[in-house]
Amino acid sequence: MTEGLSAHHQRLAQRKREAITSAATKLFLERGYDGTSLAKIAQEAVVSKSTLFKQFPTKAALFEAIVTEYWKGGPDPAALATQPGDLGAGLSTIGRQYADLIGRPAMAALFRIVIAELPRFPELGRAQFDLGKLPYFVSVQHYLEAQHAAGTAVVPDAESATNQFLGMIANYVLWPRMLLDDWSPTPADVGHAVNEAVTTMLARYGRNADDPHHA
């Protein structure tokens, strides 16, 4: 019984947490980061102020939780690094995950908040980079380093290669959304963009016995 109640309370707390982060994102976009109070977020999320303060004692802590939450989900590139093998298959998995991640409206909203508030609150940009973008980037970099170490790819500069791969996908999936309200590529279009990025990476970094540069 106690275990059942504990699980129920955990689910309830998670639902409240999701309601809070959703309400905060909405209000940050509408009113700006500075113009949104924790009390207003609690009201929008339909939770008590004590509940909100218990989970997020400051607005900065709430924003950091939003960043961390939005960058989670799907297969972990770091897990793929422990099983180097088929470079094309691995990049396809990572590419599809990344496209899904940055293609969500919530992710675009997060970027808009950071860009709008950056002049007054540079710490928001730092949180977005340090807690979201950078850990994900490093996990993909480690995957490419593992492929290179295993001899299944030739990636002497994994940092540059990671920039190239993620940049090709983001340039199609995310950045047009920052300027175009009606940017909504179909899943087939996104899949094509990912496949083209993988093909480009394989041409540059895939091991080819006939190419002396890839020996």
Which oligomerization state do the chains in this entry correspond to? single chain
Series of H and E elements: HHHHHHHHHHH
Number of helices: 11
User: What is the total tally of β strands?
Assistant: 0
Helical fraction equals over 70%
Q: Radius of gyration from the CA trace?
A: 20 Å
Structural class: mainly alpha
- Average pLDDT score: 88
Q: Alpha-carbon distance between the termini? A: 63 Å
Shape: elongated
Our estimate of the beta-strand percent is: under 5%
Low-confidence runs: none
The biggest beta sheet, please? Answer: none
Structural features, described:
The protein is mainly α and 215 residues long. Helix 1 crosses helix 2 (38-45) and helix 7 crosses helix 8. It is elongated. The chain has eleven helices and no strands.
Short recap of the structure:
The protein is an all-alpha fold and 215 residues long. The protein is 74% helix and 0% strand.
Structure characteristics:
single chain, 74% helix, elongated, Tet_transcr_reg_TetR-rel_C_sf, mainly alpha
Topology:
Elements: H1 2-31, H2 38-45, H3 49-55, H4 59-70, H5 77-80, H6 87-103, H7 105-117, H8 122-150, H9 158-173, H10 175-179, H11 187-205
Organism: Streptomyces xanthochromogenes
Pfam families: TetR_C_7, TetR_N
DNA-binding region: 37-56
